[in-house]
Specification:
Elements lengths: L10 E10 L6 E2 L5 E9 L6 E7 L10 E5 L4 E4 L4 E10 L11 E10 L14 E6 L4 E5 L6 E2 L2 E4 L4 E4 L2 E3 L3 E4 L4 E10 L10 E7 L2 E7 L3 E7 L5 E9 L7 E2 L7 E6 L12
Parallel strand pairs: 2-11, 12-21, 15-22
Antiparallel strand pairs: 1-3, 3-8, 4-5, 4-9, 5-6, 7-8, 9-10, 12-16, 13-16, 14-15, 16-19, 17-18, 17-20, 20-22
Length: 274
Amino acid sequence: FMYQLMPDGPPVVDTDGFEWMNGKKAWLHPGQNYQLNISFSEANGISDVGTIEVALADNIASDRMAITWNQSNHRCESSSIHLNVKSCQILTDEGTVPKAYDRDLIMVIELNLKWSTPDLGDTRREPSIKVTDRANHQDMVNYPQNRWRFSAEMMILDNVSLWVENGALTDEGARVSPGTAIELSGIVVFEKSGELPDFDCDVEVRLNGIKETATAVGGLFTAATIAPIESGRYPFTWNVDCLVLQGTDVTDETKAVAWIIVDDIGPIVIEFLS
């Protein structure tokens, strides 16, 4: 047990106490690892903090996406099926483990959103923070400046790089000899924000209908295939292949194609002029 000799003061949530690591985020995406820093103070120290509730979508009654920390077990839990809380801890504003009467505190939460998270279109979710002490005094702050939207749309950027072993690049693609090696390098991003995916993402390429798969690590990939043996003009296409549920590939189809001309007839000398 503890004796409390100080006057009982209410907790105070900072008006700028909701901060994403690396700055504000207008868009959040599935599978991405995010760190959230929550700043508040308690006059009687962490020992008097009863519960902390962080709602990522306080204005959405059907699922507020709330994360709750409880003094009894010092753990974060969420009832939202669309939210995965990886870890949380409370530190001092200097980043150290707090003592019983440290007043200025930061809760650090690591989380990610699942692919099942509803896309609400133009509706923005608004976060809030509520801190309650043991005497049921509380402070709650909403953060309209941190409203965000969800998107599961991904794409391959237009600036892909094509390489051929035997042949030459053209404006439309490449002219190559039969059976030559072909490689395509590019970048996969979330379309709305341009963020590179934290997770490995498969990319599919097809040449003359034959599928090959490469894995984008940190958003970067190189896919390899082989040119056909017979002469002809063949479409070479690419697309994102790691999407689940409501994930959508919004790669520009008109730009996600190169034409590979296979030429199996070498030059022939017709005559000597001099």
